[in-house]
Amino acid sequence: MKVNRLNDLDPKTYIKFLKSWASEKEITARDFILFFTKEKDEQGNINNVFAWGFPDSELQKLRSTRRNIFTALDKNAHDYSYALINLQNFEFKNAESVTTFFNEKLEPILLFLQNHLCLKAYVTILVRNYSKESLYFPCSWMIGELVRTYFHMKDEKLVCQDLINDEKNFLGLKGKEVVYALNFRKEENSPIKTFEKPDFSISAEYAQNQLPQWFVLKPPPRKEKVKLHPGKYPEILVADLIKSYTQRGDIIFDPMSGTGSTQVAALECGRKAYGFEIARHFFDIATERLANIPTDQTEYQLINNDVRKIEKYKTLPGTFDYIITSPPYWDMLNMKGADTQKRRKQKGLHINYSDLKKDLGNYENYEDFLDQLVEIYERIVLRLKANGYFTIIVKNIKKKGIIYTFAWDLVQRLSKQMELTNVQFWLQDDIKIAPYGWGSAWVSNTFHQYILTFKKTGLS
Ligand SMILES: C[S@@+](CC[C@H](N)C(=O)[O-])C[C@H]1O[C@@H](n2cnc3c(N)ncnc32)[C@H](O)[C@@H]1O
After folding, report:
1. 73 and 153 housed in the same domain
2. Which of 21, 23, 299, 303 is most exposed, with minimal Cβ within 10 Å?
3. Is 0.85 topped by the overall pTM?
4. With a 6 A CB cut-off, is 252 part of the ligand 1 pocket?
5. Interval 190-227: pLDDT, tens
6. DSSP run (H or E) holding 99
7. Do residue 144 and residue 240 come from a single domain?
């Protein structure tokens, strides 16, 4: 068996960290230490770990890992092989409270770690977004952006909690909370990113729907033809959102329809359905699926073209009641050697959406891709009714060891026209785990998707 360079764990325990989400019963703070360090360094000395923000009772558990646990910025200590910072008990309800905390507490810690953390060592920040009554603030994203000015961001993991007994979450639902474990690494050339103050437009009111903050979906197996599409979302998920945000007879739109899951769900819920899809083969699959739906809702139209041509189509309704969509996963499907790509190729399935230049999945530069996508969204928001909702189902992207916070970036960029009104996570556990880098490097499988819902504000 290969030597595992990161920790002393056997493959079975290691595997818990290969998935980008876990329940809090599966993974505790102690497990992070066991995962990110070995008990002893190469000279046989016990490894030092810096832990901050834990109550005494928790520290005792951390000490049972048999590593040396340090809690103060002690300049005489040896180098640290890992740092675990717990911000779960802090409440940051706006950007100002994060900035104050960063300046007074977090930045001194990061400066200290910059000097005392071993090269290639990890830093984990445990933090939760603010959500109380109807106020929500994604402080974790802002903290993530700030820490990125010191260390490379490598991974985001969700630790999912069930709220106990009849404790209710901000939606008034007996709900479930998410703690982010943001994982960074000290590299030779850290820092890599300059900080841009986030400007999220957050709605004062939460847009409720049936779904809790996180949930695992087990969609029915996909039909053979639909499997041809590499990035499909389940109709049961779309149907739930459509029923929450619209009425019977309302008009639903998806600018990038793929196999037509949005339209299928919309028609089945008695709504009207419109959309674009640039790739001919997916358009054909979608058209066939729509023709076979037993529904009395006859009003639908799918157009095989670049959605940027929308103005040309005069038969489309002038206003949409709800938009729901999922963008291409940047150009990840074009990444040669990607694991899923290999598997899809072997099965004779499509490995990308299309080779078309106008297909957003074929832009190589992340910023260009984001600009184009945002431009498309901004253009279609103009057709969304006032106070209408817009849901985007999207993943953050990991490419060549770098994490691109696609979901966070979209929220930031779309804030001019819309307010974020809900963030939920669709967790997948029906995909085979790939043991990327086992033994040498750690790369987790991203099995969580953001469900970002915006409300069109009066601004546009
Ligand atoms: C993630 S997939 C959507 C999957 C879809 N939600 C489903 O469940 O099948 C994104 C789709 O956007 C399409 N696309 C990319 N650029 C486009 C453009 N400029 N106009 C219209 N569609 C585009 C791709 O061909 C791809 O099928």
Report:
1. yes
2. 299
3. yes
4. no
5. 666 666 666 666 766 667 777 888 888 876 666 666 55
6. helix 95-101
7. no
Q: How far is the CA of 438 from the centre of ligand 1 (A)?
A: 33
SS3 content of the chain, % helix, strand, coil (to 5): 30, 25, 45
The residue contributing the CA closest to ligand 1 atom 13 is 256
Q: Cα(220)–Cα(226) distance, rounded to whole angstroms? A: 12
Ligand 1 atom nearest to CA at 257:
5
Ligand 1 centre distance from Cα of residue 362 (Å) = 11
Tell me the C-alpha distance between 43 and 303, whole Å: 65
Q: Is residue 192 part of a domain?
A: no
Distances (CA, A) of 333 to 80, 126, 194, 239, 339: 38, 31, 28, 27, 10
Mutational test site, ligand 1, from 359, 392, 406, 426, max ligand atoms within 8 Å of CB: 359
Q: Give 347-395 as a 3 state SS string.
A: CCCCCCCCCCCCCHHHCCCHHHHHHHHHHHHHHHHCCEEEEEEEEEEEC
CATH value at residue 410: 3.40.50.150
Render 159-213 in DSSP notation, one character per residue: EEEEPPTT---TTSSS-EEEEEEEEEE--TT------------B-SS----SS-S
Looking at ligand 1, which atom is closest to the CA of residue 329? Answer: 1
**Same domain for 328 and 219:** yes
Contact present, 261 and 232 (Cβ < 8 Å): yes
Q: Where are the alpha helices (DSSP H) in 260-332?
A: 261-268, 280-291
> Which residue segment(s) compose the domain that 47 sits in?
11-185
Ranges under pLDDT 70 in the chain: 1-3, 163-175, 190-201, 203-206, 219-231, 296-297, 333-354, 439, 458-460
